[in-house]
Amino acid sequence: xxxxxxxxxxxxxxxxxxxxxxxxxxxxxxxxxxxxxxxxxxxxxxxxxxxxxxxxxxxxxxxxxxxxxxxxxxxxxxxxxxxxxxxxxxxxxxxxxxxxxxxxxxxxxxxxxxxxxxxxxxxx
Length: 124
Ligand code: HEM
Hints:
Blueprint: H1 2-29, H2 33-64, H3 72-93, H4 98-121
Helix pairs in contact: 1-2, 1-4, 2-3, 3-4
Protoporphyrin IX containing FE binds at residues 5, 8-9, 12, 15-16, 51, 54-55, 58-59, 61-62, 65, 67, 73, 76-77, 79-80, 112, 115-116, 119-120.
């Protein structure tokens, strides 16, 4: 279980860094899909796959570990869903409304910060 928890933490940190990279790419690439299309796609995939894996490992750790009576993993799960939905919207808006895409990316980061604090403090 320790190894799975480690995999969970590792993938979640990669997802967090990828989300920051996503926001950075939206900001500095200014939604120029023609020029940065490949880069956007790669960062987006890393962000979605790593957070997705983190969610799967998190669920396994919760169900088979001692955390089933805690509430924080389920808040994490909701946070993860919100993060992924915002990511998909941010990508959709990239070219048409880059400002909004950036706002979605910023909220993604905020959601992950809240979830990270919850995961590390395990308050309830
Ligand atoms: C992207 C969202 C998530 C992030 C950023 C995240 C991050 C983390 C991190 C960094 C830890 C290690 C904390 C420590 O070192 O004490 C952790 C632990 C944990 N996470 Fe998550 N997590 C996320 C989503 C989830 C989900 C969806 C679940 C389950 C449904 C979950 C369940 C757990 C559990 C049970 C632990 C405690 C494991 C242990 O310390 O042995 N997490 N999480």
